[in-house]
Every structure is written in C-alpha cells, then in structure tokens.
Amino acid sequence: MAENTDRFVGYIDDIVWRFGIHVQDNSCCHGMSYADIRALKEISLECDCSMQGIAQKLGFTKSGATRVVDRLEKKGLAERRRSEADGRVCCVSPTAKGRDALDEINRNAHARMDEIVEKIDEPMRQIILTALESFISATNK
C-alpha cells in the first residue's frame, strides 16, 4: 500500500504542478492565487454566495474565506452586498470583470488540456476519465 500511496501522491503533485497558475502567463490570471481562482469559481456558481458558504466549499475558515474575498474585491473581481433575504448575511458575487477573468482562465486551461488530450488515444481517455471520477468520488466519502 505504501508504494501505491507514494505513486498517487507523486502523480497528483505532478499534475497540480504542471497545471498550476505559475505555468501560465501571469497576465492570464489577473494576479490571482489558485485559492482566489477557486473562490471566484465557487461564487460564480451561485447568485448569492455567503461567506460561510464559500468557506465550506473551499474547506477554509470563515476568516480565511474573508481574506480571499478581500483580495478579489480589491482587484475588482468580486463584490459584497447584503442578502435581500437576510440583511445580516453578506453575499458575494463576481463582477463583470471577474466573470471575464474566469472565462479567460478557463479558455487557457481548456486549450492546454486539448493539447495534452490529443496525444492520448480515445480508449485511454475514457479510462483516465473513469479513474479520475472514481478518485474524486473517493475523496468525498
């Protein structure tokens, strides 16, 4: 088991490194860290994403989520407002600039993935997709 664990850790580490934002042209990421990008993606999926919701989805504390949102807000990529349903709740949503930034980041990531996937034959692509789905599913249990 330890041998396989080492391989899993090594492969995941390599994948994260090779797809990290440091690999891309920094102008594409609008000065965002990976945590910033993930937070912006999460808040773009909901109309009124609370700070607590962001923290839960990212596995951060509420204060950690607040720091990420502070950075996004300073860059003009997200904005806070009070919830219409409950004025005590702070909601976060992407700005038009934030949505444009995400679109650009996603286009770059898809273009990079297209270059890689083209080098893999179709049956292996399906095996990889199935394996990745299984792996992600196991992390949620």
UniProtKB/TrEMBL annotation:
<dbReference type="InterPro" id="IPR039422">
    <property type="entry name" value="MarR/SlyA-like"/>
</dbReference>
<dbReference type="GO" id="GO:0003700">
    <property type="term" value="F:DNA-binding transcription factor activity"/>
</dbReference>
<dbReference type="InterPro" id="IPR000835">
    <property type="entry name" value="HTH_MarR-typ"/>
</dbReference>
<dbReference type="InterPro" id="IPR036390">
    <property type="entry name" value="WH_DNA-bd_sf"/>
</dbReference>
<feature type="domain" description="HTH marR-type">
    <location>
        <begin position="1"/>
        <end position="141"/>
    </location>
</feature>
<dbReference type="Pfam" id="PF12802">
    <property type="entry name" value="MarR_2"/>
</dbReference>
<protein>
    <submittedName>
        <fullName>Transcriptional regulator, MarR family</fullName>
    </submittedName>
</protein>
<dbReference type="GO" id="GO:0006950">
    <property type="term" value="P:response to stress"/>
</dbReference>
<dbReference type="InterPro" id="IPR036388">
    <property type="entry name" value="WH-like_DNA-bd_sf"/>
</dbReference>
